[in-house]
Design a protein that fits this description.
- It is a single chain.
- The protein is mainly alpha-helical.
- It has a single domain, classed as Arc Repressor Mutant, subunit A (Orthogonal Bundle).
- It contains 4 helices and 2 strands, in the order E-E-H-H-H-H.
- Strand 1 and strand 2 form a beta hairpin.
- The protein binds FE2/S2 (inorganic) cluster.
- FE2/S2 (inorganic) cluster binds next to loops.
Length: 73
């Protein structure tokens, strides 16, 4: 899912960066998250905080599940 519409940055990108040990400021500098309109900052910070090293990976697992599970219509 796209978190930052202005920069087209997904939760997967933020999660990967957080798990690599990047701080939120680093993610802003590297990807431009929450540096334009700023409306994504709260969500982006939540994704980042959930995915810091040592945190549960429920967010990533849920996203992986949604990506690989066919929709039941
Ligand atoms: S949606 Fe992220 S800066 Fe606008």
């Amino acid at each position: 899912m796209i978190v930052c519409v202005c920069r087209r940055i997904s939760d997967q990108v933020i999660a990967r960066a957080a798990r690599a040990g990047m701080g939120f400021d680093d993610i802003q500098l590297e990807f431009g998250v929450a540096t334009q309109c700023g409306k994504c900052e709260s969500c982006a910070r939540s994704v980042w905080a959930e995915c810091l090293p040592g945190r549960p990976v429920a967010h990533l697992l849920r996203s992986e599940h949604e990506r690989t599970t066919p929709a039941s219509n």
